[in-house]
Design a protein that fits this description.
Number of helices: 5
Distance between the termini: 51 Å
Helix content: 25-40%
Oligomer: single chain
CATH class: Alpha Beta
Radius of gyration: 17 Å
CATH topology: Beta Polymerase, domain 2
CATH architecture: 2-Layer Sandwich
């Protein structure tokens, strides 16, 4: 069952949603938002998130109906390259290598997506669209942050 609670266009709402996913699925290694940092602040009809985890996490996300949202398409990458959507109207699966996934910085990646072109412009052929993904959470950064010594405030 898909639901549409609070609007994920606000960074706080997106952060709360990602936190709920992370609490339910401890094996998630990273969460990326498709569209880049500018998309994090813009309202979207559907937010696309990519989660790096394992096949067990994919199945767990599919079973946790309370996490399913109509305004979120969640792709789960498992085995380091294969991905499938955890919920949503589209059945999406494939390979990051076939989509030419390239991480160009610690928090930035690009990949290609195939789509149908406009019928009148090219006769309905398939076109490749370059997509941008921005890292919004990673296990490695969370562990580093937790290990960082904290300064004590003096009273």
């Amino acid at each position: 069952m898909l639901s549409a609670p609070a609007d994920l266009s606000a960074p706080a709402d997106l952060s709360a949603f990602v936190s709920r996913i992370l609490v339910c699925c401890l094996d998630i290694r990273a969460v990326w938002s498709v569209g880049g940092a500018d998309v994090l602040a813009a309202p979207l009809p559907v937010r696309e998130l990519i989660v790096f985890a394992d096949r067990a996490t994919l199945h767990s996300l599919r079973r946790n109906d309370h996490l399913h949202r109509a305004d979120v398409e969640l792709l789960v990458v498992f085995d380091g390259d294969q991905f499938e959507n955890a919920w949503g109207p589209r059945a999406v699966s494939g390979s990051l290598a076939r989509r030419a996934w390239r991480q160009v910085a610690a928090d930035l990646a690009y990949y290609d997506e195939s789509r149908w072109g406009p019928r009148e412009a090219d006769g309905g052929t398939v076109v490749r669209v370059r997509r941008k993904a921005t890292l919004i959470w990673s296990q490695r950064h969370a562990v580093q942050e937790a290990a960082r010594p904290r300064r004590r405030l003096r009273a």
